[in-house]
Amino acid sequence: MGSIKTDSINQFARRGYLVRVTCAACGHQQLKHPVEMMQALHSRKISLRVEVVERHLKCSECGARAARIEPSMP
Ligand SMILES: [Zn+2]
Question: Ligand 1 centroid vs 2 CA: distance in angstroms?
């Protein structure tokens, strides 16, 4: 399969991946649907770039802003 570039949330959607968000502080994981994320980000006028989204996500468990985003096969 080679290297897959998923540096933008819409690439997750295009490839049919889910977005796995892992909190680097407490390890809490959440699976999100990329299309729903894109709509939420768009309405808040936030870039779809993964590095930007990571900075905006807040952990629902511990409240830390230490998200890591990875692709997840559904
Ligand atoms: Zn956390």
Answer: 31
Looking from the CA of 24 toward its CB, the CA atoms found within 13 Å total 9
pLDDT tens-digit series, residues 14-30: 999 999 999 999 999 99
Ligand 1 center–CA 60 separation, angstroms: 7
Q: Determine, yes or no, domain membership for 28.
A: yes
pTM of the model: 0.88
**Domain span at residue 57?**
9-72
Q: How many whole angstroms from 20 Cα to the centroid of ligand 1?
A: 14
Query: Which two structure tokens, joined as six digits, stand for 67?
Result: 């998200």
